[in-house]
Each structure stands twice: as C-alpha cells, then as structure tokens.
Specification:
- This protein is mostly helical.
- The protein has a single domain, classed as MetI-like (MetI-like fold, Orthogonal Bundle).
- It is built from ten helices and no strands.
- The longest helix is centred in the N-terminal third of the chain and has 35 residues, at 65-99.
- The N and C termini lie far apart (66 Å).
- The relative contact order is 0.12.
Length: 265
C-alpha cells in the first residue's frame, strides 16, 4: 500500500520567489543609495574626534544664559506650537467632515478635501516656514502659520477616519426623529468622536512643540533663533544650554500629554 508523504510549506514557490525578489530590490536600492550619497571616508573616520572636540567646547554649560535669552525663547516656542495647533482646527475640522464618507456623499468634496490634506502633509514644516518668512518676514507669525498648515493634513486625516468609524445606530435613530443636521452632528457624531479628537489634538501638539523648536533656524521665531545665533558665533556652551532646554521641554510636554490623555480618555 502506497503512502502519500504530505510536506507542509508555509509559502508556495511563487510566494518565495516574490519575497526573494523584494529582498533583492531592497539590497540593490541600498547599494545604489550608498553610491549616490558619496561618503567621504576621511570625514567619516574623523567624525568621532570632531564630535569629542565639540562636546568638550559645550562643557561647562552656560546656565546663566537661560534667564537672559533662552527662557523667553522657550515660552515663544510653546506659544507657536499652541497657537499653531489651535489654528489647525479651524481648517482641519471642516476638511475632516468633507472627507468622511458617512457625512458627505459627494465624490468631488472627498477629492477636494484629500487634495488639501495631502498637500499639507507633503510639505515639511521647515519649507512652510521658509514660505511664510518670505511673505510675512521673520518672526512668530511665520512660525505659527507653518505649524498650522503642516498640522492640517495630520489632524484632518485622523479625525476624518475617526468620524467614519462611529456607530451609525444612534445616528440613524436621530435621523428617524427628524433631528436637524447640526443636532445629528453635535449629539450623534461628536460624543463618539470626542475621545479620538482629544487624543489626536494632544498628540499633534506634542509633535508641534518639537517641530517649533527648530523653525527658528529659518527665521520663524522660537528657541531655534537663539540656537542658530549661538552656533553662528561658535558659542558652544550656549548651544548646550539651548539644546538642554529643548530636551527638557520636550520631555515635560510628553509627560503633560500622557497625563491629560489619561484623565480625558
């Protein structure tokens, strides 16, 4: 009596070949990237020595520089992040509503909203800052608008997805009672989206605090201006003070966001 030997395989031959093809493409892309970067071996080998020299110049840290300049710059950075996040909501909420298929059925509205959401996310905050600095000149206004326009795509996309995932049972019940569109939006959608809304906004504000810290490098206000001036003057002890302040404020922002989310969500 002949017995059939069944050999179990996780992937078929076609799947294995496809995986190997992907690995091969990744290796080729990596090699091509290394060649196009044109790394200079002398600079690469000298990097540890240069880094050690830079850190030696940063010590001791000039703590007296904090109350004179760094403190006001850090407050300005927080204001840029906060105002930019609030302005984002003015544009992101309507775009999120237009992008949600269970609220708006128009394909044209979906494409228009997605165009603005994708455009916002495609442009880096530093590029937005350069654009607004050229329009409004150096200062806080350019930084606030850069943060706002960069955040629209992030907040609008996630908020739109949260709206699409709501339980439609309560929505249908409100429609059956003849409730107005605004009542359905405020009493049906909003209570369900509220936890996700706060989570998205707080998470984006946390990101904006970090991004606003470097906008000053292109003249958009905040601690980046102080950092750039210190680097241009080779005042490395003051550079260390600015970097330490940025690090501390980012950690504190993370702690604040986590605690608020625990209380609200």
């Amino acid at each position: 009596m002949n017995t059939i030997d069944h050999h179990w395989q996780r992937f078929t031959l076609k799947q294995k070949l496809s995986r190997y093809a992907v690995y091969l493409v990744l290796v080729i892309a990596f090699v091509q990237s290394i060649q196009s970067v044109e790394v200079i071996p002398e600079f690469l080998l000298d990097a540890p020595e240069q880094m050690a020299d830079m850190f030696s110049r940063m010590w001791p840290i000039d703590f007296a520089y904090y109350p004179d300049t760094v403190h006001d710059a850090m407050v300005e950075t927080l204001n840029i992040a906060t105002l930019g996040t609030l302005i984002t909501l003015i544009f992101a909420i309507p775009l999120a509503l237009m992008n949600a298929s269970n609220i708006v059925n128009s394909v044209w509205c979906h494409w228009i909203s997605r165009f603005f959401l994708v455009s916002s996310r495609s442009v880096n905050s530093l590029v937005w800052a350069l654009l607004f600095v050229s329009i409004f000149g150096p200062g806080v206004i350019a930084g606030v608008l850069a943060i706002a326009f960069r955040s629209i795509g992030f907040v609008g996309k996630l908020l739109g997805e949260a709206i699409e995932e709501v339980n439609m049972g309560s929505i249908e019940a409100l429609k059956a009672t003849g409730a107005s569109w605004m009542s359905i939006l405020l009493k049906g959608y909003w209570p369900q989206v509220l936890p996700a809304f706060f989570s998205i906004v707080l998470f984006r504000w946390d990101i904006n605090v970090r991004e606003s810290a470097v906008l000053g490098l292109v003249g958009a206000g905040g601690i980046g201006v102080v950092l750039d001036d210190s680097m241009n003057l080779f005042q490395w002890d003051r550079v260390a003070m600015s970097l330490l302040a940025i690090f501390i404020i980012v950690i504190l922002a993370e702690i604040v966001v986590v605690n608020i989310r625990k209380r609200l969500i």
